[in-house]
Design brief:
Structural class: alpha/beta
Shape: globular
Order of helices and strands: EHHEHEHEHEHEHEEHEEHEHHEH
Bound molecules: pyridoxal-5'-phosphate
Helix content: 25-40%
Number of strands: 12
Strand order of the largest sheet: 2-8-7-6-5-3-4
Number of helices: 12
Oligomer: single chain
Largest sheet: 7 strands, mixed
């Protein structure tokens, strides 16, 4: 008999909702037209893109013309960083970001350093929070861009983006936030957040992989990354991924609709998991902020046990979790986020992350509370295999 699996890795990716698949299906077959074609097949595809743009704009409280569809969250982040840097290089060459951003931001910034830009990587506190006062202190006359994520994928900590955005914009810098982990879990109203640019990815909110969005405040200059036929108002050339975009719009709209009920439900499950593990396991500590964190996000570090070993043994027990971010899977490097919040390289390898989602119930949490203490104690005594 096949074991029932419990999936607790929603920060890595999520399943595609049936309603989303339903919305995508027609654009693979019956309505496969190219949105740039003049004929009827083309206009059906174009109308679908337009509807999707409208739906995303409603969630973000922005205009349709401020939405750029991309090939995912990484591309949206790259477009934001390179797009602003290249469009504003004559205004200045200084960028502010944090040490705990996703690699999509960090690697883009490192690349720009090689092109003559100067990047300040702000240090978070031990909970993973960026103090707006540190942003204020780092701003310079030549600062063109501030990029601080809304919520961290590894430790779940959320940031005071509104306060940081006010500082950045008052100073004349463009404000970007990576909101990839926040879809369906936090308010994405770009007016309330006060941001100029915001990145999203469909596969983190029950949509398809390889589709994302960059919100771009109208009138801000942005250079394209991908050149070609001029689609997406010249911001992102290439034949539009109509099924993907249609699916993303439905996924985002449904995630936003369910947010009011899902957030308190996920917070209750998360706290049951955190409190339960703290009570049952010695030498386990929460990483990230205890309350300013994503609703379904529970992350820990452990005394004396490598996270990867716990992950493998939990997997054998039917539970999928993560020992860091998905991008670190298979890598033995300690997480840059855990190092940035002050952990030693050794301690950073003991990270363990559970991210709950819409299919999870209290029974799933109770199962982890049942099996995990035993796995950890067996690993500590050497009774089961480490990796
Ligand atoms: N930004 C954050 C915070 C993420 O967690 C991820 C994905 O793990 C990305 C960006 C990249 O998104 P995508 O997987 O759509 O390229």
């Amino acid at each position: 008999m096949e074991m029932t699996r419990i999936y607790l890795d929603h920060a890595a990716t999520t399943s595609v909702r049936p309603e989303v698949l339903e919305a995508m299906w027609p654009f693979f077959q019956a309505n496969y037209g190219n949105a740039s074609s003049v004929h009827s097949e083309g206009s059906v595809a174009r109308e679908a893109l337009d509807r999707a743009r409208e739906m995303v704009a409603q969630v973000l409280h922005c205009r349709k013309g401020e939405i750029v569809f991309t090939g995912g969250g990484t591309e949206a982040d790259n477009l934001a960083v390179f797009g602003v840097a290249r469009a504003r290089r004559n205004h200045g060459r200084h960028i502010i970001t944090s040490q705990i951003e996703h690699e999509a931001i960090l690697e883009s910034c490192r690349q720009l350093e090689g092109e003559g830009f100067d990047v300040t990587y702000l240090n978070p506190d031990s909970d993973g929070r960026i103090d707006p006062a540190c942003v204020a202190a780092a701003l310079r006359p030549d600062t063109i861009l501030v990029s601080i994520m809304l919520a961290n994928n590894e430790i779940g900590t959320t940031q005071q983006v509104r306060e940081i955005a006010t500082l950045a914009r008052t100073h004349g810098a463009v404000m970007h936030t990576d909101a990839v982990q926040a879809a369906g879990l936090m308010d994405l109203d770009v007016e309330a957040l006060g941001v100029d640019l915001l990145s999203l990815s469909a596969h983190k909110c029950y949509g398809p992989k390889g589709v994302g969005v960059l919100y771009e405040h109208r009138g801000r200059p942005l250079s394209p990354l991908i050149h070609g036929g001029g689609q997406e108002r010249g911001r992102r050339s290439g034949t539009e991924n109509v099924p993907g975009v249609a699916g993303m719009a439905v996924a985002l709209a449904l995630a936003e609709r369910d947010r009011v009920s899902e957030v308190p439900r996920l917070i209750a499950l998360r706290d049951r998991l955190i409190d339960g593990l703290l009570a049952r396991v010695d030498g386990i500590y929460v990483t990230g902020h205890r309350t300013a964190r994503l609703p379904g996000h529970a992350s820990f570090r452990l005394d004396g046990v490598v996270g990867e070993a716990v992950l493998v043994n939990l997997d054998l027990a039917g539970v999928a979790c993560s020992s860091g971010s998905a991008c670190h899977a298979g890598s033995t490097d300690p997480s840059h986020v855990l190092i940035a919040i002050g952990l030693t390289a050794e301690s950073a390898k003991t990270g363990l992350r559970f991210t709950l989602g819409r299919e999870n119930t209290g029974d799933d949490v109770d199962h982890v509370l049942d099996v995990l203490p035993k796995i950890i104690s067996e690993l500590r005594t050497g009774a089961v295999a480490t990796v």
